[in-house]
Amino acid sequence: MISSRKQRYAGPIGQSDNALEIGYPDVFQVGIERELFLPYIGLVYRNQATGGPTYVAYELGYARIGGVTVVSQPELSFGLSLDRTVFVANLMPPVDPRRAAPEMIARITLRNTARPVQLAYPSGQDYDLIIRDEKGQAVYQWSQGKTFAAVFRNETFGPGQKDFLLIVRLADAAGQPLPQGQYVAEAWLATQPRQFAASVGFEIRHIF
Known about the structure:
The chain is mostly beta strands.
């Protein structure tokens, strides 16, 4: 039964005065006794009897709604996401070098829902990304050939989220597709010292 539509909730993901409270008055010794739901999020708390005088409680600590909205307890995270795990180079004749090399979409994310953090940048560069082959040799670096302002910057970040989106053509200096094999993409914030970094493995395949 509905116990309240304006119940106060305080937990890992925050506070609300607008929780829907559901009670289960017929439960005895074993079963769910109480649940709280938040608008647009869903279940955030459950109290459950586990037999005799014992109880267990569950609270929501993280949620991704619709693939876009993220709700979580206070946290600091840095990540690298690729749009695919396997990238295919089309080498079927006639080969068009402008289209043979596949493109990678890489997203670099710094997310902070905890206390603000201090970021010190020695230049105008915010981030970098490098790709290494199976031997550990660098075959691509985003910052190569770019120039950045020679200015030291201090930035206070959080709470909030920063996203950087890169489109990388998986080709060598001559424009030819990178060889088949396993690769690792590594991204980091260009702070000094380096504080945040993440890497993701992927594969390049050729079709003839």
